[in-house]
Amino acid sequence: MLVAFHDDIDTLRFRTHAQSFVVAAGFKGFKMVPPGPHYLSYNAASRQGEFGPTVAFLAHLAGREVAVRRWSPEHELLLPLADEDEVDAGCSQCFFVCALRS
Length: 102
Fold this sequence. Notes:
The chain is mainly β and 102 residues long. 14% of the residues lie in helices and 43% in strands. It has a single domain, classed as Substrate Binding Domain Of DNAk, Chain A, domain 1 (Sandwich). The strands form 2 sheets. It has a 4-stranded mixed β-sheet with strand order 4-1-7-8, with no helix packed on it.
């Protein structure tokens, strides 16, 4: 399972269940996410380093599913990709997996 972010993001505080991470530019997502429902939340940071309101979404991942979100800096939201072809192209070209290599 993979939760990937299509574009570079600014500083975010990102939470998955009980774990919290502060991530910055170059962060592309999480790999080895177990199957099932996941509650994910995040807060965008201002240039002064202060975090804004919490935004959350529920993702139910099954099998070898890849959940991809695009960062919208003007709205400060992680939006699902509307174009399934874009997700398929990114997966077939290993864009998401290559970006998450350790």
